[in-house]
Specification:
The radius of gyration is 30 Å and the shape is globular. A two-stranded antiparallel ribbon has the order 1-2. The protein contains 29 helices and two strands. By secondary structure, the protein is mainly alpha-helical.
Length: 541
């Protein structure tokens, strides 16, 4: 029997630390109960922690928790944090609710920080203000971790972003975490202009790498690729002066994503050099970003070279290469890459792998192969088809004019067809002049997005081709009276390592006057050439 309280504690802790499986831990628990220590809060807390952290068994941890008559705040914290860690947010929120209702223990700053992360995942923006009120009432309003969690909770959804900013403005002592959280909130809700303005307001002396990453990744995720590159350049320029922060893994992954999506190959090569200078050439996440960037830019030789230099390849490595081949319609290379993946056998294909493979088959109209891979995915790899897989399969059949088979797949889907599915059907119908199914596809697209004027314009044109002029006229009249939108055409060009983007009837570019002056000059020159040519013709006559 243990000689004293201190030695007993030490001995029990040593035994719990040696628990390598649940059976062993149950034996320890039974021994504690036999010795009369089964209800000792400290020991129960340690058993719960061992279950959640070492063994990863939340079920038995919750069993221990429920058996304890008066759980303290540390037990609540252990179980709630474990639920949040494995994304069981509803269980975390419900346990917090029971804690408040039953008043068995008062939440502390750690519980508030965890619950504020789980709450928006369950109830979206509803009720965040109630948690905020409880935080203030219990005296944790000045705790920086809780303040950051409050900002993050409010800024998850656009409806509450103004409240988040109000909370931020009312804080007297703003740490770098608070600045970064607010910038990330703006980026998450698509308000990049506000994110950029706030970043520029942020004191330069407190900026760190995560704060730079928040604005760079925000630009990349919202399609502001040139802006992402510009912020990265500013970051590197600051770092070279000795007062800035070095790019890390997150920085390079974000900027490579922006470059791949914008096709800025020349800048991408420069970033590749920067990656080597910063010794990230063995980081798998960064290497996968390089594979994706080069592949999307069409530089398959470089993409394959980086792929071959990977000491270990994961699903993302293979998927990046296969998807890039598919994106550029290189069906044979995509299939060959998949076959190499199967031969090596170290990494199993997943749902994303088959999306790339089926997309490649659709672009090349490899119908037989596409069907084969779809069946292989389900039967051999036990991957349940999602909407993206069905979309690729239907796109493949429509491109090859097999509309009957496409409709069979569409009608047999266990998922409701989305905009991409009907768009694939419409595209195939336009290729093969299938007006009947095209009408159905457009009508379904209008049902999904009633305000999309582009779909209505296509339907009006289709009625015109079919000779139904009255129907075409009615749709056009409705469009002119309504508030429909139409996606603007977009084009871009890379000049001196910078991408310039132009939309239809767009005059927002900083050098728009120079651009239009050159256009007028070109038009005048072409008119002059046309007049001179006809004058020579007349003289010759």
């Amino acid at each position: 029997m243990l000689s004293s309280s201190a030695s007993r504690h030490n001995r029990v802790l040593a035994i719990i630390d040696k628990c390598v499986n649940l059976q062993y831990l149950k034996q320890v628990h039974a021994n504690l109960v036999t010795l009369g220590f089964g209800s000792t809060p400290f020991f129960v807390f340690k058993l719960i922690r061992c279950c959640t952290i070492r063994l990863g068994d939340i079920g038995y941890a919750r069993h221990l928790f429920d058996k304890f008559t008066e759980p303290n705040v540390y037990m609540y914290n252990a179980v709630i944090s474990s639920y949040a860690k494995v994304s069981e947010h509803e269980s975390a929120v419900l346990l917090y609710r029971d804690m408040i209702r039953e008043d068995r223990s008062k939440p502390n700053q750690f519980i508030f920080s965890i619950v504020l992360k789980s709450w928006p995942e369950v109830l979206r923006s509803y009720g965040t203000d109630l948690i905020h009120a409880q935080v203030v009432k219990m005296g944790y309003g000045d705790d920086q971790a809780v303040q950051t969690a409050i900002l993050d909770a409010y800024s998850r959804y656009a409806a509450d972003i103004c409240i988040a900013r109000k909370v931020f403005d009312e804080m007297s002592d703003r740490s770098v975490l608070l600045w970064t959280s607010m910038i990330s909130g703006y980026a998450r809700t698509g308000q990049l202009e506000n994110a950029a303005l706030l970043f520029d307001e942020m004191p330069k002396e407190i900026r760190d790498t995560p704060s730079w990453n928040s604005i760079i990744s925000g630009c990349a995720q919202n399609g502001f690729f040139s802006e992402a590159v510009e912020f990265f350049r500013r970051m590197v320029a600051d770092e070279r002066t000795g007062r800035g922060n070095k790019p890390n893994q997150g920085t390079f992954v974000s900027i490579l994503s922006a470059l791949g999506n914008s096709g800025m190959l020349a800048v991408g090569r420069s970033i590749h050099g920067c990656i080597y200078r910063n010794a990230f050439y063995f980081d798998l996440f960064v290497l996968n970003g390089l594979i994706d960037m080069y592949g999307k830019c069409g530089s398959f030789k470089c993409s394959r070279t980086v792929f071959n230099t990977c000491l270990e390849k994961n699903q993302t490595s293979w998927n990046s290469l296969i998807n890039c081949y598919a994106l550029h319609g290189r069906t044979h290379e995509a299939i060959s890459c998949f076959q190499d993946m199967q031969k090596e056998g170290e990494v199993k294909p997943d749902a994303v792998t088959f999306i790339g493979l089926l997309s490649a088959c659709a672009h090349g109209e490899y119908v037989t192969e596409g069907y084969g891979y779809f069946n292989m995915m389900i039967k051999e790899y036990r991957v349940e088809p999602e909407i993206e897989h069905y979309g690729c399969l239907i796109d493949m059949l429509c491109r090859s004019g097999q509309f009957h088979e496409a409709m069979e797949i569409l009608n047999g889907m266990r998922i409701s067809p989305d905009e991409a599915i009907w768009g694939s059907l419409l595209h195939g119908c336009k290729m093969h002049r299938g007006t009947g199914l095209a009408k159905l596809a457009i009508e379904k697209l209008i049902e999904i997005d009633p305000k999309n004027g582009g779909y209505k314009a296509i339907l009006a044109n289709l009625y015109g081709e079919m000779g139904s002029w009255d129907s075409a006229q009615k749709i056009r009249a409705a469009m002119s009276e309504g508030n429909d939108y139409k996606a603007l055409g977009c084009s871009w060009i890379e000049v001196e390592n910078q991408v310039h983007k132009f939309h239809s009837v767009d005059k927002s570019h900083r050098r728009v006057e120079d651009i239009y002056a050159i256009l007028r000059c070109l038009v005048d020159t072409s008119k002059l050439q046309y007049t001179s040519f006809h004058a020579v013709e007349l003289l010759a006559f």
